[in-house]
Specification:
Pfam families: DUF4398. The chain has 5 helices and no strands. It has 125 residues and is mainly alpha-helical.
Length: 125
């Protein structure tokens, strides 16, 4: 069996220390994950599942990636995934609210048109 030289051991030690140092710089982003999950829940409540299914799917997938990264103790990646999930959920919610507002406007315009036709019909002798 081949043994490691002192240079390889030193190199492995430096890599290990740098990994520990990187992990120490980024605390676990548990609060960001909670915010992302709350944003997804709020988007679902606003109807985003129906009106923005692609954005909702992306938000859920990114939250899953964030949880996986957190489990691997890759806190920086977990933070990035969590932030992206939150933004996607907010976009989905905005799209849902816009779609609902557009639907309401279309319904009001249709009601106005029906009222105009009714007024015109009654005005004719």
């Amino acid at each position: 069996m081949r043994t490691l030289s002192w240079f390889h051991l030193l190199l492995l030690s430096l890599v290990a220390l740098s990994l520990v140092g990187c992990a120490a710089n980024f605390p676990p982003p548990t609060q960001n994950l909670a915010l992302s999950e709350a944003a997804i829940n709020q988007a679902e409540a606003s109807g985003a599942v129906e009106f923005a299914p692609v954005e909702m799917r992306l938000a859920r997938e990114k939250l899953t990636e964030a949880r996986a990264a957190l489990a691997r103790e890759e806190n920086k990646k977990a933070l990035q995934w969590a932030e992206q999930a939150e933004v996607d959920a907010q976009l989905a919610e905005a799209k849902a609210r816009t779609a609902k507002a557009q639907k309401t406007v279309a319904e009001l315009q249709e009601s106005i048109q029906i009222l105009k036709m009714e007024i015109e019909r009654k005005a004719k002798p």
